[in-house]
Amino acid sequence: MNETIKLSSGGSMPILGLGTWLSSNEDELTAALKTALDSGYRLIDTAFIYHNEAVIGKVLQEYFKSGKLKRADIFITTKFDTLAKFQLPFTAHAPEDVEKCFNMQLEALQLDYVDLYLIHCPVPVQVYL
């Protein structure tokens, strides 16, 4: 479970992680996260649209406070999603929207940073003036 790949930045990323899509039931997700973390999973993938970042943050804080894990042990991936956050179309990726969404997600996850932040369902668009 501890296999990682080296990134061009010099950091490393686990090659296997826990995806949390369709995991919005708090009790089920809490049990799944604890089982995964206790089994050695160190990458957790989420997104705002999954409606589970607060549960993930709660479980992670429990592990950090108990000393079972340190923040540096975990690789967190989440995604920017204008549709879910602001009821905007997928083409609304203005910098101020990204920053606002990112800060809301950090708060829900109870983290100071995430390791990978992606655009969820990026849609290219050509603007005609």
UniProtKB/TrEMBL annotation:
Which SUPFAM superfamilies does the entry mention?
NAD(P)-linked oxidoreductase
Q: What is this protein called?
A: NADP-dependent oxidoreductase domain-containing protein
Concerning PROSITE patterns, the annotation shows:
ALDOKETO_REDUCTASE_1
Q: Which GO terms describe its molecular function?
A: oxidoreductase activity
One Pfam family this chain carries? Aldo_ket_red
Q: Which PANTHER family match?
A: ALDO/KETO REDUCTASE
Ranges for domain NADP-dependent oxidoreductase:
16-126
